[in-house]
Amino acid sequence: MALLNVSFSSKLTPKPPLSLPKPHLSHPHFSPLSLQTPPQNLLFSLRESVAKAGFLALLSSSLFFVDPALAFKGGGPYGSEVTRGQDLSGKDFSGKSLIKQDFKTSILRQANFKGAKLLGASFFDSDLTGADLSDADLRGADFSLANVTKANLSNANLEGALATGNTSFKGSTITGADFTDVPLRDDQREYLCKIADGVNPTTGNATRETLLCE
Predict the structure, then answer these.
(1) How many domains does the chain contain in total?
(2) Does position 163 have pLDDT exceeding 80, yes or no?
(3) For this UniProt entry, which segments traverse the membrane (predicted)?
(4) Which of residues 33 and 123 earns the better pLDDT score?
(5) Tens digits of residue pLDDT in 38-94
(6) Is 42 part of a structural domain of the chain?
(7) In this structure, what CATH number is given to the domain that contains residue 96?
(8) Is the pLDDT of residue 135 over 70?
(9) Does 10 reside within a domain?
(10) Which of 9-23, 71-85, 160-174 has the lowest mean pLDDT?
(11) Three-state secondary structure along the chain?
(12) Cα separation of 179 and 191, whole Å?
């Protein structure tokens, strides 16, 4: 029986290592560093996003603990105190700068605003019965739904003020007051024209003319 003469090599022929396709160095976004570590600008963006998210979460949660009174503060030097929805009867605000001050729904009976700067102030639905508003700068003030009965508006400048709804000036003194561009109900305009007289010392406009009295 013939023996097969098979010879085995003492050394195995090594297989060539697998070769990965080489990146194209000409690619515009290729960088040798990208094969090693993430780009630094990406890490920075991630850290910044996390920091912002944490800050916004803290800010939103803190809003639940804000003193509700802070939402009712107005402008001007008296803004450090709450003037909205308060009983401020007889308070002395004379000569003060109360620009855009918020007096909404407040009780201001016999309050003294003589000579005060109340541009854009809000007296929405407030009670100004018997208040002294003489010589006050009330341009653009909001008297919507306000009770301004028996108030002193002598020489006050109400140019562009709002007086919509059930605003009432019954029994008020309006000598020299300027009602230019104040939207009044027909019954209020008719009533005020019966008592209107004088000229506003600041604007030089006659009260009757500003009320469009016939």
Answers:
(1) 1
(2) yes
(3) none
(4) 123
(5) 555 555 565 666 556 555 554 444 333 333 333 334 444 444 567 999 999 999 999
(6) no
(7) 2.160.20.80
(8) yes
(9) no
(10) 9-23
(11) CCCCCCCCCCCCCCCCCCCCCCCCCCCCCCCHHHHCCCCHHHHHHHHHHHHHHHHHHHHHHHHHHCCHHHHHECCCHHHHCECCCCECCCCECCCCECCCCECCCCECCCCECCCCECCCCECCCCECCCCECCCCECCCCECCCCECCCCECCCCECCCCECCCCCECCCCECCCCECCCCCCCHHHHHHHHHHCCCECCCCCCEHHHHCCCC
(12) 13
Q: Which of 92, 104, 107 minimizes the C-alpha distance to 143?
A: 104
Tell me if 53 is assigned to some domain. Answer: no
Range of the domain at 119: 73-209
What amino acid occupies position 83? Answer: T
Q: Is residue 1 part of a domain?
A: no
